[in-house]
Amino acid sequence: MNNQDKGFIQLAHKPLFEHVLERLSPQCDSIIISSNKESQQLSSYDLPIIKDSLEGFLGPLAGLLACMQWVRKHQPGVQWIASVPVDTPFIPQNLVSTLYQSMLENTADIACATSNGRTHPVIALWPIRLLDDLEAALSKENIRKIDLWTSRYKVSLPDFSDSLLDPFYNINCHEDLVHAEALLRKPNENTA
Questions:
Q1: Percentage of the chain with pLDDT > 70?
Q2: Which residues lie closer than 8 Å to 24 by C-beta, 6 or more apart?
Q3: Of 18, 66, 71, 154, which cross-links 53 as Cys (Cβ 3.0–4.6 Å)?
Q4: pLDDT tens, 76-97?
Q5: How many helices and strands (H and E) does the chain possess?
Q6: 6 is in an annotated binding site
Q7: 87 annotated to bind ligand
Q8: Whole-angstrom Cα distance, residue 142 to residue 140?
Q9: What is the C-alpha to C-alpha distance for residues 177 and 4, in angstroms, rounded to an integer?
């Protein structure tokens, strides 16, 4: 995307970040942002912006760890954290509740979204109680891949498949953005 900040690429005259925020906000008691970039645009949303606590830009698990650490310190009563990437503007409006229900029904440790035969490891519900395990995996075992770390736990995989639109359609290039614009113009094809 020509080194642009993906979160502020416009989709239907609105930044991708706002599409995700609008869908996620009603599902969560609070929202925090995982970002290592200094951004006045992100700061304007008046939400906590959490930088990785480990050096070296170690990927999504490092961002998850930093967010878990922030939650443990600032919201000690919170037991779960949901994660979604900024480039998925069609996330389901029942994402968090479905992940949570699936985790309960399957007595799982983690719930990770699936759709149309694909697992989406970054779109998940994580228990804060795994914070110390995650920190050890990153700092002592050098684990970077989400799937490698989650393979140690029972993971529930609720299916969000939709024949009209993959609810986890992500925007990685200009063609994806054009396709997302077309999807937004078609009535009744957005996930609920």
A1: 94
A2: 31, 82, 84, 91, 95, 96
A3: 66
A4: 999 999 999 999 999 999 999 9
A5: 7, 8
A6: yes
A7: yes
A8: 6
A9: 13
